[in-house]
Inverse folding.
């Protein structure tokens, strides 16, 4: 049964991600990315990481993607404008795009080769797993990773101040 | 019957997702879509961490995922603020419009 769920969720994730990259309208991209994130959180549940699955929905699909939606609606740029003029020939033309495609293909080949080196190891069954519930994660987060946790809070403060300063309207 | 997912299939899936994200960054000409592709890449890495956690039987990977999500939130906030201020200057979201070092 797990196998069926895995393949369904994996297919949804990959198809939605391909469509995210393929859409011309950023609005559709954002909504499709939410679909992809929901399928990914299903995969986290399959892996026995319920806390991460919940966080994926609440923070990623709920908070970050809403931020993206706000900006897409605020800027109101429905479609990608086709490249024109000098810069089009230099950066947006067929040549640079082809280089990008070749680079991505090269990357895929490299990753596939690297992963072929590992043999397909079966995952240990969930019964022999140590518990990965919120209590265990919370204890580790506030003892072993306490410094990283505090550093993250400073990072968020800096990001908040930075976002306000950058997006503020300049006085004419 | 479908093959049972192994550690390798999770790694493969995350490699595919990461490649899709990379292709998006390389090929798209829209700053918002490029940021979304970066989010796809971050999620691919998160999947690797969680799968490795299950494989090795620890929770450290899940804690790293927690931090990755926080950094992604900070990145999205600052990145979108930069996009808004760039859009005010040029009325465009194409990265080709922002090739000068100073305006």
């Amino acid at each position: 049964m797990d196998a069926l769920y895995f393949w369904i969720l994996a297919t949804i994730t990959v198809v939605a991600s391909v469509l995210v990259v393929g859409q011309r309208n950023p609005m559709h991209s954002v909504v499709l990315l939410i679909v992809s994130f929901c399928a990914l959180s299903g995969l986290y549940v399959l892996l026995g990481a319920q806390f991460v699955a919940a966080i994926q929905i609440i923070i990623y699909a709920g908070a970050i993607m809403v931020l993206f939606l706000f900006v897409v609606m605020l800027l109101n740029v429905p479609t990608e404008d086709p490249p024109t003029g000098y810069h089009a020939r230099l950066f947006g033309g067929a040549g640079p795009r082809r280089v990008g495609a070749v680079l991505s293909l090269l990357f895929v080949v490299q990753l596939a080769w690297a992963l072929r080196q590992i043999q397909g190891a079966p995952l240990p069954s969930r019964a022999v797993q140590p518990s990965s519930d919120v209590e265990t994660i919370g204890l580790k987060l506030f003892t072993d990773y306490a410094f990283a946790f505090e550093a993250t809070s400073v990072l968020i403060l800096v990001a908040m101040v930075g976002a306000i300063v950058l997006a503020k309207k300049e006085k004419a | 019957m479908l093959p049972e997912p192994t550690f390798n299939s999770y790694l493969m899936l995350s490699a595919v997702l990461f490649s899709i994200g990379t292709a998006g960054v390389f090929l798209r000409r829209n700053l918002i879509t490029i940021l979304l592709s970066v989010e796809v890449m971050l999620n691919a890495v998160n999947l690797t961490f969680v799968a490795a956690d299950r494989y090795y039987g620890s929770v450290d990977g899940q804690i790293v995922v927690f931090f990755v999500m926080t950094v992604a939130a900070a990145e999205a906030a600052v990145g979108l603020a930069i996009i808004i201020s760039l859009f005010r200057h040029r009325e465009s979201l194409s990265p080709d419009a922002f090739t000068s070092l100073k305006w």
Remarks:
- Chain B has a mean pLDDT of 87.
